Amino acid sequence: MNAEILNSMEAAQNNLGLYIHIPFCRQKCYYCDFVSYTDSEAIFPDYVAALCREIADQGGLFTHRRIDTVYIGGGTPTLLTDSLVTQIMETLSGHFHLTNNAEISMEANPGTVDRVKLKLLRSLGINRISFGVQAFQDRLLKMLGRIHTAQEGREAVVWAHQAGFDNINIDLMLGLPGQVMSDLKDSIAIACSLGVRHISAYSLTVEPTTILANQLSRGLLHLPAEEAETDMYEYVTEVLPQLGYNRYEISNYAQSDYECRHNLKYWHYQPYIGIGAAAYSFLGDKRMANNDHVAEYIERIRQGASPVAETEIIPNPIAIAEYTFLAMRTIQGLCFSDFSDRFGMDFQEYYRDVLPKLINKQLLILTDRSAFLSSAGLKYSNQIFADFLPEE
């Protein structure tokens, strides 16, 4: 990866983000198709040793660059022992230049933390924690294959506050089998009462290879009617802003100044380094994917080889499309001058055949400075984004 990154450094001039992947779970959630491994505790030390070596290697390439966001995701990072988490954080601080106000986030399953664990995480410099609560109804959590209870979800947030975390996110899901509007209303009310700064509210996506998809296809579970799901979506978009959580992206809501800065890097098409099995890096015109098989990743690192399995040189038409629909995910939308500065062309001219039909359908709004999706456009964003892809 060294030569590939060095060749891209001139094209990625901003502070970098850093993503660290911990691909282990106690149990695979029934709706999840991410790269993750269960029953793998025996290889945790070997994986973390490889991870730390990659951190050291990449840190050596970026001695003159600063990291202003770190996101430790998974999987379930909080499955790691205290000593392994400490090893990661000490290696990170020893090999990368973190800005003084760096946002350092970690994903956490409420069923894998306690007061002691959360105090340790905060003492190590982690200043943002994201709990995958999903719902505050035990029957829904069981249906999803989550390992925690609703009470454990509440306790985790309380303990995080006590540990000194001010920046706390809760993930919630809507459109779940068996979920009714009163469930969603209760979950939002509980989340807000717990004093979290950020709420991510995702509509369920049924991935074809998951246990949940199998259960649905066999008629063991049933999704809410389309009208009911629409009502849930509209409730979230209307109520959370009223409660002080400003919508800044399709599925993300935050109190003022508590937007997730790391995720904003993705949506603003800014550079980041990915470390760990299955992690992606994005630098300039290159996207690189690490080997997604844990044992192979560990072995490649041991041998001193690059963990990168794939490198993509992003063609300019694809980069333009990705930049556009990622920007359109945000409420502020796409800034014309930023687009022009990056690609050397006029946005409205480039998409002259696409924009009028979206405007006529009241899905897109143009001002003299920007383009952004309307409320209806945000709801149907995935279909709209396809319009920005180049013709084959």
TrEMBL record:
Q: Tell me which SUPFAM superfamilies the record gives.
A: Radical SAM enzymes
> Which InterPro entries did the record assign?
Aldolase_TIM, Coproporphyrinogen-III_oxidase, Elp3/MiaA/NifB-like_rSAM, HemN_C, HemW-like, rSAM, rSAM_sf
Report the Gene3D superfamilies cross-referenced here: Aldolase class I (3.20.20.70)
Q: Where is the Radical SAM core domain?
A: 10-246
- Predominant subcellular localization, coarse grouping: cytoplasm
Q: Which GO cellular component does the record give, naming just one? A: cytoplasm
What is its subcellular localisation?
A: Cytoplasm
Q: Which named protein is this?
A: Heme chaperone HemW
